[in-house]
Prior knowledge:
alpha+beta, Beta-Lactamase, 7 helices, elongated
Amino acid sequence: MPRDPEVPPAPDTAYAVPALEKGLDILELLADTAGGLGQTEIAEATGRSVGQIFRVLGVLERRGYVVRDRQSGLYSFSMMTFDLAHRHPPLRGLIMLATTPMRELSDRVRQSCNLSVLDAARVRVIAQVESPADFGYRVRVGAVFPLETATGEVLEGAAALTRADPLQAGITDVVAPIVDARGVTRAALTVPYVATTFSGIPVDEVVAAAEDTASEISRLLQGEPR
Length: 226
């Protein structure tokens, strides 16, 4: 009986695409590497010869997924995949909805704030608004953090949390969930609260403001007008 063309084939080595697998292995390797790697290092790490990866590296470089330093010849991971993710309509729409409320929150509490989503088993920052104060704490858009944080717990379904940051001394993470119409947490709004003489707003007021802003973004996500 012929297979239904709408049903994808089960994983099987018969369907393997060697060139694609080489490319994915290289991208995953470079994504996990802090610095650049040479062709020989990439070949050894992926269990292949230089000849087997040479053409694949050329394609990845030409398409912008990896970049090669002209002096050292080392390859490193580019931001192409991050750019692709931001071109994905649901993610782009969430960022557009959240930008104005996040700016208003930052102005209100005089602290920076950021928006994160789950990325596999990690926390990925997708948007960030700087503090308007002279002193503040910022998180790079695209940064990745472990789930064992207040933000990670909220993304996995916990209610709003306020807790000392396990990675940065002196920072208190104020986190509130952003939920869709079904009540599913789609993102987390985080204020990395810095308690210094520059912090004129007490943390309890920041918590209330963050929860109000997360609720507003949730309503916008659910289709309610501003």
